[in-house]
Design goal:
Length: 394
């Protein structure tokens, strides 16, 4: 059977052939949607730091938001499929992939992992249909890498309700989300618990973060909770300690690695096209040895990173993925991505800083991918603890 997918120049070893025929058809549909609907407007919305809400209906028709969860989409997706979808979306626009990943991975993943059967039925089908958009609020103004032990947002039980107080920062989708999964420390037992705060709840105030140089299309918010009252029925019933939060992050961290492959693949493909077309000294710059060295280095980074995340997906599908596997993938892939987007921008020379050439957007967005879902240093320490048996965290 012929593949419905056109061969990507960035997939040098043909890893997409590992997908089943049905999975390749899904990726092909998503790729066509991204090419016709997202790519033409990506730079415009990035420059304006606005979100293209008109795309939500298109994503809804693709029926891919519930792929990772039983009974929520026409096809139950493997981690390999959802990984390639993250790659594909990020290869077009890392901001849109962040919107998609926050909603389908962090928000839906929290409800699926930590919610009761009743809560899953209440929220997940509507989220899978993109009728309700989700966000995930963990990071705080004073707590990023140390948020596990330093979480400051509090939750106090008051009869049939909980009262939340505190702040969250860098929360994607939060300015418009219908529901936000909020992680707060129980004042009584000091354990971290999860709560679903619905849009319009009194005491919940999200404010858009301005002045970003990366993922500008993503609507990140700083959220203030002031005596925000949440009913007990909105407390995720199976979120009892930070270990449950970590279970969600273990799965989504691998998704960041997949997206990072897409980001560097896009930069490589843009640089390759430019090198073929741009002429200096009477010939295409693709004929120069140093340019070919850059291109070969970029493609090597993309290929080795893709091999790493493909194996990670296989471990996840087999149910044997560990923290250190996801941490290594995120750390290694984002480091290689950083080198790759820099080389791609270099191939463009001065033209590389012009947004119209798109490589500048991937160059800037890579910085956010490099930082979120655990910095390189934190992920390295997770791997280090696994291989030595000794923790080196402060």
């Amino acid at each position: 059977m012929n593949s419905p997918l056109t061969t990507l120049e960035g997939d040098f070893f043909g890893f997409e052939s590992l997908l089943s025929g049905v999975e390749q058809e899904i990726v092909a549909l998503v790729r066509d949607f991204l090419r016709t609907e997202v790519e033409p407007i990506a730079n415009e919305y990035w420059a304006r730091a606005e979100f293209p809400f008109q795309l939500v209906d298109g994503f809804r028709k693709l029926d891919i938001a519930g792929l990772m969860y039983d009974g929520l989409a026409a096809h139950r997706g493997t981690r390999l499929l959802t990984g390639f979808l993250a790659l594909e979306i990020c290869r077009t626009d890392p901001s849109i992939n962040t919107f998609y990943g926050v909603h389908t991975g962090l928000a839906m993943g929290s409800v699926n992992r930590c919610g009761s059967p009743e809560q899953k039925e209440r929220w997940l089908p509507a989220m899978a249909r993109l009728e309700k958009i989700g966000a995930f609020a963990l990071t705080e103004p004073h707590g990023g890498s140390d948020v596990a032990g330093g979480l400051e947002t509090t939750a106090r039980r008051d009869g049939d309700h909980w009262v939340l107080n505190g702040e969250k920062k860098w929360i994607g989708n939060a300015t418009f989300a219908d529901l936000v999964v909020v992680w707060a420390r129980d004042e009584e037992d000091r354990h971290v618990k999860g709560f679903v705060v619905e849009k319009g709840t009194p005491g919940f105030h999200p404010e858009k973060i301005e002045g970003k140089i990366a993922l500008r299309t993503v609507q990140n918010a700083q959220i203030t909770f002031t005596d925000c009252v949440v009913p007990e029925e909105n407390r995720l019933q199976n979120a009892r300690t930070f270990r449950d939060t970590s279970d969600v992050l273990r799965q989504t961290r691998g998704g960041v690695a997949w997206g990072s492959v897409g980001c560097m693949m896009a930069a490589y493909e843009l640089a390759l096209d430019y090198a073929r077309e741009r002429e200096q000294f009477g010939r295409p710059i693709a004929k120069f040895q140093l340019i070919q060295d850059h291109l070969a280095t970029m493609l090597g980074n993309v290929t080795s990173s893709l091999a790493l995340v493909v194996r990670l997906a296989q471990l996840q599908d087999s149910g044997v993925n560990k923290d250190e596997h996801s941490a290594m993938a995120k750390s290694v892939v984002t480091t290689r991505m950083r080198e790759t987007v820099a080389l791609a921008r270099e191939v463009f020379g001065g033209n590389g800083i012009l947004l119209e050439n798109s490589v500048a957007r991937f160059f800037a967005d890579a910085e956010a991918l490099y930082s979120y879902e655990g910095t390189r240093e934190i992920n390295q320490l997770i791997v280090g603890r696994a291989i030595t048996g000794m923790g080196a965290f402060v």
